[in-house]
Amino acid sequence: VRLGRMSKRGDGYIRSLMIQGAHAVLSQLKPDSDQPDDRRLLRWLSRLGRKEAAIRLANRNLRIIWALLQNDQVYQHKPNSNPEAAMSL
User: Fold this and answer.
1) 2 pLDDT exceeds 70?
2) At 86, is the secondary structure helix, strand, or coil?
3) C-alpha separations of 65 from 14, 27, 31, 70, 75 in Å
4) Which domain of life is it from (predicted)?
5) Max Cα separation, the chain?
6) How far apart are CA 34 and CA 19, in angstroms?
7) 10 touches 66 (CB < 8 A)
8) What is the pLDDT of residues 23-82, one digit of tens each?
9) How far apart are CA 51 and CA 22, in angstroms?
10) Which residues contact 3 (CB under 8 A, 6 or more apart)?
11) How far apart are CA 85 and CA 88, in angstroms?
């Protein structure tokens, strides 16, 4: 399986749910957050706009889900302890 862009070939219902979930996350962001994930999302919002940032977040979440399912693992959130590495994402 080749990972790439989010295409319209898959299930449209799941795709729309992922986009709606991403919009919900973006609407709850606080501009003064210290979390690396929040800072990344804020950069995406300022650089790409709301819709494109939501698509990028949904695509990122789908890649994480796909990797977890392929490797039969459980998600464990581990924030990056190196702030410089987090800024490069």
Assistant:
1) no
2) helix
3) 13, 22, 27, 9, 8
4) Bacteria
5) 39
6) 24
7) no
8) 999 999 999 999 989 999 999 999 999 999 999 999 999 999 999 999 999 988 776 666
9) 9
10) 63, 66
11) 5
